[in-house]
Amino acid sequence: MTFHLEEELKKLPDQPGVYIMHDKEDVIIYIGKAVSLTKRVHQYFQASHNEGIRKERMVKQIARFEYIVTDSEMEALVLECNLIKEHRPKYNTMLRDDKTYPYIKVTLGEEFPRVLFARLMKKDKSKYFGPYTSAGAVKDTIDLLNKLYGFRTCSRRLPRDIGKERPCLNYHIKQCSAPCQACISKEEYRERIEQAVRFLNGEYQPILQKLQEQMESAAENLEFEKAAEYRDLRNSVNQIAQKQKMTDANDEDRDVIGLAKDGEDAVVQVFFIRGGKLIGREHFYMKIASEDSREQILTIFLKQYYAGTPFIPKLLMLPSSIEEKDVIEEWLTAKRGQKIYVKTPKKGIKEKLVELASKNARMVLSQDKEKIKREEGRTIGAMKEIAGLLDLPKIVRVEAFDISNISGFQSVGSMVVYEKGKPCRSDYRKFRLKSVSGPDDYASMHEVLTRRFEHGIAEREELLKKGLSNDYGSFTKFPDLIMMDGGRGQVNIALRVLEELKLNIPVCGMVKDDNHRTRGLYYHNAEIPIDRNSEGFQLITRIQDEAHRFAIEYHRSLRSKGQVRSVLDEIPGIGPSRRKALMMRFSSLDAIRTASILELAETPSMNMQAAKEVFDHFHSVDEKKEV
What we know:
globular, Nucleotidyltransferase, domain 5, alpha+beta
């Protein structure tokens, strides 16, 4: 799909968010955050702007960009960190681990809990809040809570150590309630902890109001230093109050679903939260009836999307309630084998996160409606077209195979995978032929297909023993359609392998004309012509070219390695270590060829016998050339 840079730059909003740069292979090469997406992204493409050679090199590789809008720069920062960790882009300076962001830790596992500063979130009985972007604000807030509620800061083991030692200085300056001296009951102390937890959960107004009153009172009494202290504490609380919706401390897997509709068009945006972190998102275009309600659209989406997706999180968060909620929960629970909840948040952080997903859906719908239609026609629509040609109910995953060799030299096989009309490069596989010698493409393809599906069957059996689904293995996902680079012969080879392994997968061949261009599909002993202008035909051509390219590149890499090895490794007694030593001393094969036996023997790891073998080899070769 053509990406018009100037048009896309005009669509950028003047809002905070994260931008994601892709290269021509659609690989993410850079992720950044911005207070204003339109200002920041425009800077990259201004001739006068200079951010160094590395960024300049990156800009030259940008083929397209996308972005996610957030409500604040703070959210953009945390989202940027999560996405960089997930995708590890080439041109990003890799951020440090979660120690970059501090947490507030309440040690609820203790009889008399403490409120502490933490850099790591551990799986213990404590409750964690954060992460936050300002360590100073976190420390100020902890100090504030300790001053207001008199929490202990010592590491004494209570109640075991009650009364054993004198109270610390904090007690004497009235900043600790001294549970170590039984000056406060466990019940009253716990009540204060609960008030602090409510504050950290978002009930900021009572404390903010109290600090405001104290600041104004101090100012009226001309106690300006104390008033400034209260002002600074209030500002710290306000900074903490900018709750980060992009990361949740409860390590929960969930999908956050937003919806936007306009006439007969709708976009559903899904935020994927894994381990408490937003790691990605995807939007889906839906053709609807203008009278369809939001509840109906969401119900249809849930049924269609989660019928095919390999992973279902524990919680689905929706912007609107649905009538079939109980039935859908029961269905999804049966699919996952674990209780699934479908909820519509009405307040708090979860409700804001759903609204953020809907906000992004509205933006996609308003700006990219036509682009989405073209993209779906090119991918999912093309898959549906191919399924219709072959009279198949649906096609989601396609695997295509090809063989590459030169007169049988180092034959290799390639397997490329397309899902929903897009290449799934993480599932590509390459095979170096083991049992076939010579230019026998049929035997080579038989070996490749046999190895691919035997491996998959073995992985499935192993996962079954462990009680895991087939989506956990690299070879366990079988295709809805196998596409062979060729006609009847290659198709029959594939059908024979499937019959031997007792598998039932449709197979078609991608037939080429005399000019080596895709002509049609061979299926069920007949050639099916295809409209050359259709999206289905274009997708078949892309799949065939990709399988061929992947095989050729692998074969080329093996050939280059073989040429490096071929000369010295033909000599008896010369292995990797001696070859390396010779190349390090003499720098070139010509220098080795002209060296004397004594010079060769003086090379580290060489001896007179090995030196003689090398000398004789090159000189006998030279003599043969002269003859």
